[in-house]
Design brief:
alpha+beta, 5-stranded mixed β-sheet, 4-stranded mixed β-sheet, 9 helices, globular, disordered C terminus
Length: 264
């Protein structure tokens, strides 16, 4: 497979605008894998995604089958265009990465029906939730954000993914979470650049398409299928996102106006 002279990509609007306004010059490569390359543009992480990559909301979508023939050794900005290995990434259409609207008044009180229960989050993710979080006496989430931020392994630690799921679900329901937002923003420096960027995306109501499909399916016959689809993302990222979303749904079903995990 030959390396192309240029690559057409689609982009989430905020990433498109970030690239257009970024100053010329080299940008660091944060990670290069077989299906995705991540670079640092300012204080954000931007991905060049192959056709089989996870559709992170900070990524440029392409039809590239893989990056095996790329050196992925350098990247730079020039004239509002990101280049990887000297290859310009030409932004065309916009991609909507916002979570769908969710009527929290219609959320069933038992989001984990017997059918949905088949997609139980992995034990490693359940272990991230501090004791008492799922109870009516649970502390406000902002009190445990420091315990979750950066907790886990890899480019996106599981604790961060859980927070992304919780925050994005509240954004979908239109329920503000100012205390949690402040706690997360204050601790972004404690995690990886990619994870901090994804948390920023969640704060702006942006998320993986699998999470969006799960939220659309809440309370329907399709919920179990969409939960399993979300859980299958990555090694543990999808399971953590699902856990965070379910904690948020349980809180919203009890009282959508409170920024409290497990509120009754």
């Amino acid at each position: 497979m030959s390396v192309p002279a240029s690559v057409p990509v689609s982009a989430p609007p905020r990433i498109r605008d970030l690239i257009r306004t970024a100053p010329d010059g080299p940008v660091p490569i944060v990670h290069a894998g077989p299906q995705a390359v991540y670079v640092a543009v300012g204080d954000r992480c931007v991905g060049l995604l192959g056709r089989h990559a996870t559709g992170v909301p900070c990524g440029l979508r392409s039809r590239i089958r893989g990056f095996g023939d790329w050196s992925c050794s350098w990247a730079h900005m020039a004239g509002g265009t990101l280049h990887v290995d000297g290859i310009p990434l030409m932004v065309g259409r916009a991609v909507d990465v916002r979570v769908p609207p969710l009527d929290h008044a219609a959320i069933p009180h038992r989001t984990a029906s017997p059918a949905t229960g088949a997609a139980t989050p992995q034990a490693v993710v359940v272990g991230l939730v501090p004791p008492g979080v799922a109870e009516a006496t649970a502390p406000p989430l902002e009190a445990v954000v420091p315990e979750l931020l950066g907790r886990g392994t890899g480019l996106t630690p599981e604790g961060d993914d859980l927070l992304c799921g919780w925050i994005a679900t509240h954004r979908a329901a239109g329920v503000p979470t100012p205390e949690v937002d402040r706690a997360v923003r204050a601790g972004l420096h404690r995690t990886t650049l990619l994870s901090a960027t994804l948390l920023d995306c969640a704060l702006d109501g942006e998320a993986l398409p699998e999470l969006g499909r799960f939220l659309r399916a809440v309370g329907t016959a399709d919920e179990a299928h969409r939960a399993a689809e979300l859980e299958a993302v990555g090694g543990s990222s999808g399971a953590a996102l699902l856990q965070g979303a379910r904690l948020a749904l349980d809180a919203l079903a009890g009282d959508g106006s409170r920024s409290r995990v497990g509120a009754a």
